[in-house]
Amino acid sequence: MSAENTDTGPDSLEISSGKIMQNNYRQDMPPWGSGAAWDAANRSLDSLIQRNRMALDPVVILAQKVQARMVSIFSLLDDLCQVTCPWCPDPCCLAARVWIDFKDLLFLHLAGHPVPPEQLLSDFKESCRYWSPRGCTLPRVSRPWVCTWHLCPTQKVILRRKAPSVQEKLRHAVQGITAGRKAMEAEFIRIVS
Ligand code: SF4
Ligand code: SF4
Questions:
Q1: Which 3 state secondary structure label does DSSP give 52?
Q2: Domain-embedded: residue 20
Q3: Which of 1, 91, 101, 130 could in theory staple to 14 by disulfide, Cβ–Cβ 3.0 to 4.6 A?
Q4: How far away, in angstroms, is 150 Cα from ligand 2 center?
Q5: Is the pTM of this model over 0.70?
């Protein structure tokens, strides 16, 4: 495999496993921002997973636990969006500097979810390609984790009006998912390195 991940053109057909897992990116652009780099990263990660398929069973279980916790808060988050986003005068997605990072990509591959056809944006001067006036066009489970846990000020106000048990459930789930994603990534790197 090549060790290149330049995000600059069609030459980046393969990305080394170490390079993908570094999660590094140039500060002026998101990782795997070009179509070629995105495809190469996904091919390389898929190949790495296939080569270590048996050993990665425990990591797949970690990804499935993350998924179960994510799904458990989707209805609450959908409710918060439904009462805020359709009337939002300044949608946060249009200015967000967010991207699918290595943990997001690893989760999608291990849990068997569709990988979006391209990175959210190829350049921080752009807006997310998956935004539409009717909201995000990606399934919630395929969005970067930051897009799910982030609540804007308006949504936080509405959340604070809900029962303490509801707020606590969300807080607990977000902590558990964040920790689960870290464990998933660390165990994956330990096994394939
Ligand atoms: S999350 Fe908040 S800021 Fe973002 S689009 Fe919805 S209402 Fe607007
Ligand atoms: S992926 Fe969806 S939620 Fe995240 S920034 Fe893009 S449009 Fe917004």
A1: coil
A2: no
A3: 1
A4: 11
A5: yes
